[in-house]
Amino acid sequence: QVQLAESGGGLVQSGGSLRLSCAASGSTFSLYDMAWYRQAPGKEREFVAGIRWTTGNIRYGYSAKDRFTLSRDVAETTIFLQMNSLQPEATAPYYCKADTKYCEGSWGQGTQVAISS
Prior knowledge:
- The protein is globular.
- By secondary structure, the protein is mainly β.
- A hairpin with a 5-residue loop joins β5 and β6 (58-60).
- Strands 2, 4, 5, 6, 9, 10 and 11 form a seven-stranded mixed β-sheet that branches.
- The protein has strands at residues 2-7, 10-13, 18-26, 31-38, 46-52, 58-60, 68-73, 78-83, 92-100, 106-107, 111-116.
């Protein structure tokens, strides 16, 4: 099993930027995929961005396209989400998810992102 620790959330004004981090620990030797999700109040959980750990292939959800960038530090088993030009609709807790070859769906506690207009 993998343990995840997110950080980097906060309150910024519309048009601002934030950089989220998610550090994985535990059974990271079998890590297969890591991803960011968010779930605004009253809405369904939404895929934001993810990376296939074995190949480095990155994919983005519709809301992240062109404004968010996912990157990783392999040595630290950490992924980052650089979010630019943030708008109020991006307000939500952001959750990190990890899948290993043996266990899917390890989630972090979330980090709150709030954008003021």
